[in-house]
Amino acid sequence: MTDTTTTPPSSAPSPSGVPGTPGAAVVVDHVSHTYGRGESAHHAIRDLAFEVMPQEFVSIVGPSGAGKTTLLRTLAGLLQPSEGAVWVNGVRNTGVPAGMAMVFQDYSRSLLPWLSVEKNVAFPLAGHSSAGARKELVDEALEAVGLRGFEKRYPWQLSGGMQQRVAIARALAYRPRLLLMDEPFASVDAQTREGLEDLVLRIRDRYEMTILFVTHDIDESVYLADRVLVLSRPPATLVEDIRVQLPEPRDQITTRENPDFIRLRGHVARLIHGAPGH
Amino acid sequence: MTATTPRSGTGRSASGRSGSARAASAGRPRHARSALVGLASVIVPLVVLVALWQLGTTLAPSPFFPPPVAIGQNLVALLFGGPAVVTPVFVNDFLSTVGRMLLGYAIGCAWGVVVGTAMGLSRASRETVTPIVEFLRSIPATATLPLFIILLGGDDDMRVVFIAYGVSWFVLINTASGVGSIHRTMLDLGRVFRISPARRLFSIVLPAASPKIFAGLRIASTAALLLAIVSEFILATNGIGFQLIQAQGRFLLLDMWSWMLALALLGLLLNSLLDLVERRVLSWHRLSRQKI
Predict the structure, then answer these.
(1) Do B194 and A96 make contact, defined as CB atoms within 8 angstroms?
(2) Does this model's pTM top 0.95?
(3) Domain-by-domain residue ranges, chain A?
(4) What is the nearest CA distance from A22 to chain B, expressed in angstroms?
(5) Superfamily name with CATH number, domain A2-99+176-273
(6) Between B38 and A80, residue with greater pLDDT
(7) What is the DSSP letter of B201?
(8) Alpha-carbon dihedral angle through residues B211, B215, B216, B222, given to the nearest 10 degrees
(9) Nearest CA-CA distance, residue B287 and chain A, Å
(10) Contact criterion met (CB < 8 Å) for B288 and A101
(11) Among A87, A164, B95, B158, which residue's CB has the most CB atoms within a 10 Å radius?
(12) Shortest Cα distance, chain B CAs vs residue A96, angstroms
């Protein structure tokens, strides 16, 4: 059921100049990043190499402070890596790539409190399309996350889980090909989290997106993903690239009872905590 | 400048009270009642003070402390009446002061927001400019008046520039701190969704910093009035400050008191106007904080 793939993308550029497998949604080509210089330099990530195929759901897990945020900011083009490069949809990141959206961990800060729910969702769309088309995108996205009827509310009038759904709707309305999620459910309660996890799986199917999901929750990483990338302590390197082949659709009860799920989560936990395994 | 703080302080707490009354939109009667209570708690102490003063001056008349009713009547006589409804003093002195103050205030605030935003956004500019700002603003603004007179002469332009200069610090410091403390996630959000720098500035940065900017605008409004009056103490030919000095020279104590009353009313009016604007612009901020 589980096979460990250790096929980092080759640095040899293909005819198109893009490293890695042709058609990959994301290619991380031997990326390292160091903050600061000299004595106080902090090596956040070192020589990370992996690729993500279109419509794959990939979880990234690692111990706290493992450079997950650094990796995500690099993928998002918010940070230029010290070495190596990131390619999104065949284009080398020199800034924020087109067709990419992000759901941040801190929904209370990623939603604009002076805008209503619908205006928050429409915020990235201004200038992209006509007012009618924008309205359609916003309505559909709010419907997808189950927030129709809350258009005129303000984010701070909603619960944490609902706020994060607004943030997801905003990302959906943007129609990204690549969705980055930075520990999006870290600050909601367990029940809300399960609902949001299933929501993400549903919208992945509906919107045909590639999703990169950073989390520190081992169960969540396995439950959601097609692949789990396990990072080491900083400087973060790729410890293992695990393919998850659990029955679809995933289900909060049966999937978590599945012996493969239990074995996998144990395996990931051992990798993260560095305990002697099998 | 310390003298300006208490007034702006009470103004804010009063607005907070009536603001919470507005928030309880679910229960209208309760809303109306608590607004009344809020209003009464402002007016009652004032009325009591005036009544006591009136009583005191009637029992023991003093040339230095005229009765409040006389002060009020004298103020009305100073400003209103005559064929044009308002007196020449109203136009030449009262309106001149208000005009200069508002113009200086507007220029100072605009400058403060622009420079403060630049400081708040860029760490490099913040680190370079902060020591200079800290030094310059430590000079009491009133102490720079002689310099402004030498540089710009004794006319009205100088007064406007002087007010703008003194006022700008409050707005600048508050804006820089407001913009500088915007959470990284909020700034990242604009970049991730590839929003243009201009729209990021006007739709994310400035609204996010607006609560602090408004706090600066409020303090600055009190300072503007103070600086306007001080600037009219020297080399002026009109204005409320000029009238105050004239009244002092001629020992017209009733006039002095009346002009002080005019200034108090002007300050209150200004504060209420700002309150009104702030309540509209920052309703999200007040309500979201009550939620927490």
Answers:
(1) yes
(2) no
(3) 2-99+176-273
(4) 25
(5) P-loop containing nucleotide triphosphate hydrolases (3.40.50.300)
(6) A80
(7) I
(8) 150
(9) 8
(10) no
(11) A164
(12) 6
DSSP state of B94: I
**In one letter, which amino acid is A10?**
S
pLDDT at B280 over 80: yes
Q: Test A114 with B186 for CB contact under 8 angstroms.
A: no
What pLDDT band is residue B20 in, cutting at 50, 70 and 90?
very low
A105 CB neighbours in chain B (<8 A) are 185
Select from B138, B137, B140, B144 the least CA-distant residue to B169.
Answer: B137
CB contact under 8 A, A174 and B193: yes
pLDDT tens for A136-146 read: 999 999 998 88
Tell me what percent of the residues of chain A surpass a pLDDT of 70. Answer: 92
Contact B185 A104 (CB under 8 A): yes
Please tell me the distance from the alpha carbon of residue B31 to that of residue B37, in angstroms, as a whole number: 10
- Which residue blocks in B139-281 are alpha helix, DSSP H? 145-152, 156-180, 184-192, 197-200, 206-231, 240-249, 253-281
Cβ(A196)–Cβ(A188) below 8 Å: yes
Pairwise CA distance, residues A56 & A212, whole Å: 8
The residue among B218 and A126 whose pLDDT is bigger is B218
Counting one residue from chain A and one from chain B, the pairs whose CB atoms sit within 8 A come to 58
- Selecting from A96, A106, A124 the residue whose C-beta is nearest the C-beta of B185 gives A106
Strands (E), A154-244: 178-182, 210-214, 227-231, 238-243
Two tokens, residue B74: 């004298």
* Identity of residue B107: I
In angstroms, the CA B115 to CA B118 distance is: 5
Chain B environment of A175 (Cβ under 8 Å): none
Q: A277, A271 in Cβ contact below 8 A?
A: yes
Instruction: Tell me if A101 and B284 make a contact (CB, 8 A cut-off).
Output: no
Residue pLDDT, tens place only, A99-153? 999 999 888 899 999 999 999 999 999 876 788 889 999 999 999 888 999 999 9
Q: How large is the ipTM?
A: 0.87
A-chain CB neighbours of B196 within 8 Å are 127
Tell me, rounded to whole angstroms, the distance of Cα A12 from its chain centroid: 27
